[in-house]
User: What shape does this take?
Amino acid sequence: MFDRVLIANRGEIAVRILRACRTMGIGAVVAYSEADRDSLAAQLADEAICIGPADAKRSYLSPSAIISAAIVTGCDAIHPGYGFLSEDGGFAEAVAAHGLTFIGPSAEVLERFASKEASRSLMARHGLPTIPGSDGMLRDDEHALSEAERIGYPVLIKPSAGGGGKGMRMVRTPRELEASLRVCRSEARAAFGDDSLYLERWLEDNRHVEVQVVVDRYGRGVHLGERDCSVQRRHQKIVEEAPTPALPPASRAELCDRAVAAVVAAGYENIGTLEFLVDRDGRFYFIEINCRIQVEHPVTEMLTGIDMVATQIRIAAGEPLGFGQEDVEFRGHAFEFRINAEDPAHEFRPQAGLVERFYAPGGPGVRLDSHLYAGYEVPSYYDSLLGKLVVWGPDRPSAIARSKAALDELVVDGIVTNRSFHRALLENAAFVEGRVTTNLIDRVGTAAFLVPRS
Amino acid sequence: MAAERSSPVPRRAQDRLDDHAAIDHLADELLPALVAKLGASGLGELEIREGAWHVRLRMPPDGQAAGSRRSSSGRQQAARPAEGPRAEHGRTDAPAAAGTGQVVAAGHGTEAGHGTEAGHGTEASSAVRPSRVVAASPAVGYFRPRTDLRAGTKVRAGDRIGSVDVLGIGQDLVAPGDGLIGATLVAAGEPVEYGQALIVLEQLSEPRAQALGALAGEPVPAEPAPAAASTAPSATRVDPADSAPVDAAPVAAPIALPAAAAADQAADAAAGNPAATNAAAPAANVTAAANAVPPTGAA
Assistant: This one.
């Protein structure tokens, strides 16, 4: 096992990784940018080291700064968290070249799954259904138009790299396609440094369901069930839950079993998530794999009782998984609400500033993963995630009831959050009945989820 | 003068400007005079309020300032620019320098105590350095000072005065201004972090000497403001290599301007750092509670 891990991330996930290290008796060093000097993770760490200025390119996205920090602080492994360099094969390779362990899949595995389009065909070869899409990357506009014609409109333009909805657009006509290609290219280039795009057929009223897998170095893999992430705004997940209300138990079991079988056969290793779209008739289609710990992993932890970050660290250290599929039990129902520093009343504009008062809700089944504290200054340089309210109940209705109580208890003063949006969502009939599709919020409009502020 | 903090709306640009102006006023006019008063009075603590601001000055309980600290890896953290009052865990305090006073600037009722109480004797390490006198590390790695430079060597702004070895590649440490090489705060080959103060450049001018006198508790001239004000603009860049948007550093820097060099040396003396060539003569220890000052992110 590792002696000391460098946490090369920020915000709530840095705190989450730190907690896993603590429970495992591993020293935790937090690498921070100048904007995060006062962050909770830096304060809690065994040691904290400044790796660069606020600009992520020179801190959290700088492989040399991070590796150098790990070396000078005597770490033997680096945990990249999510985002930033977490799925960067080149970074994983550089970490290994300096005699350190990258906590995640090996560089070779990351390279194999780096392109969404390539992983789609790889997983198709291993028996997963995929959505009809373009034959490889779009070469030019002509190619895009002919491929869209072949697939059938509406189609979804997707960038090969990255995630989070950037560079992604649904188009219904050739004209819209032509107009959107340039926008998507420049968005993808700006966000991921890679402007290659591909097309997928758009499924009306689809649900986003993902399967959590864990595979050790020795090819032993289990799934930890699925999560439903259909509550999205502009392709950004807002609320996640498990199990999915979209599929009956038998279909869920089939989906998860097939996903883990395919990913093990394809030579995956470490923790990963396979994302699927589920259509109106309950058919599922593989869309991509995320080779990292995900924001919404606590939902799965609530159901299974498995510490996924600790499991990830153990696997990276070369330990065998130590449990089989038959050992994984799923209990009850869980939600995760992403508490973001954004204003629902003003187009979800990101907020920054001083947190004047902060109170975390509690009670049975309530967990808040957050880096907030009263007096914390939310910097404006990074994403707007302030924390994740995770609520478990023995069944879905009781989890919803607990979620309402917990959201009402949560206090974040001094900065506007999307708490009111979540609260309104919990009263929405489509949500309560488990009928939310990925396009619902954008179609209905967020105004429907606004409550007058007192 | 200060922003209305009870409102949940984000701070406006004008509020920020107002806060900056208020902090400049504090740093340039009030603090030197207050420090002198506190030093002369024999009081333990002094607090004043102005508008929504308050400033509290507190003598260390034992009449001494805390010294520097070392991280568990031996990385010296004593001399970073604009370090906030980050709590350190499991650190023990080094013996004290001949410090006499400690200044905490705070705004809007955000308790300054957050700064002082959270840091277990981190006052010296929290001392803020202005760019004009300290060359800060451009990267995280191992420090390699230029071996041909000695204390007293004259250097010009932009001269390479050392480097930081990042995975085998040296990143230049350049002089942030003209001056004489002073104390080297970190021994050759030691690990350093980004922004860590490495080499002091001596450039004591008349106004500075006067301000140091004021902080050391000597009688303060009636109007110390003009001198400090004239140096403030160049102090708003803490690290020459840092082109990123500013954080709390620019706000905090002017506050500590006069005492910086002294506190540097005090910290070194306290840490028993062999690289410190000069014992600390003037002995004020200044802390700016960087996270207690208003946000400056978008300024």
